[in-house]
Input
Amino acid sequence: MSKQEELLAGGQVRPLLLASGSPRRREILGRLGLRFRIVPADLDEEGFASAFRGSFPELVEALAVAKARAVGANEPTFDGLILAADTTVILDGEMLSKPTDSADARRMLRLLRGRGHQVATGVALYDGRDEVLTSGRLCTSVWMRAYSDAELEAYVATGDPLDKAGAYAVQHEIFHPVERVEGCYLTVMGLPLCLVARLLRARGVSLPPLLAASAGASEGCSWSPHCRPPLPPGAINSL
Output
């Protein structure tokens, strides 16, 4: 068993929970070669967001923290690490979270078409052994291409936009909604590995060399040149 197959901290194996049902986050984390269990957080996100009084980037970090705490409360004997995240799209002072239906997805995609916006992702890491919680957030600038109405309608018809903030997947192989990304690409996908790496390293977890370099970066995201598609199976595992 390699060091990348388990989380190692202080020479001891630490189990990992991913507090998210997102297939994108599961894929990103899985490509590191780490073993983890998925335990989605039971949290009223809409109620939490309506009561929150901070900025949208502060909100996604607070939601990630709340998710990690919620899973920790439901797993009182768990002494490993719980990783949680939350993502939103911000356009003209409006938060575009997951669309309520196809009509809402269509509305969001029309608003975003041919324009720039921000994507904010918050990440939280809860250590069940020491009951220590650390968190952070990243924002990335994204510019959408001027896709046609026909392309928009075809994409909405797939149902893919319905479980995604802003109603789009940056990595979608057919729709290709994004023209340019300035910053961390994986922030847009929903789990910035550079930030995850910093939080893991702070808990004494051994990291693969490239991920360790990202954790030590004082500015920006040194992982970005390596996280853009295509990402064939094993691409990250071998780094």
User: Anything to note?
Assistant: The beta strands are 7-9, 12-14, 16-18, 37-38, 81-91, 94-96, 116-127, 132-144, 178-182. The chain is about 35% helix and 25% strand.
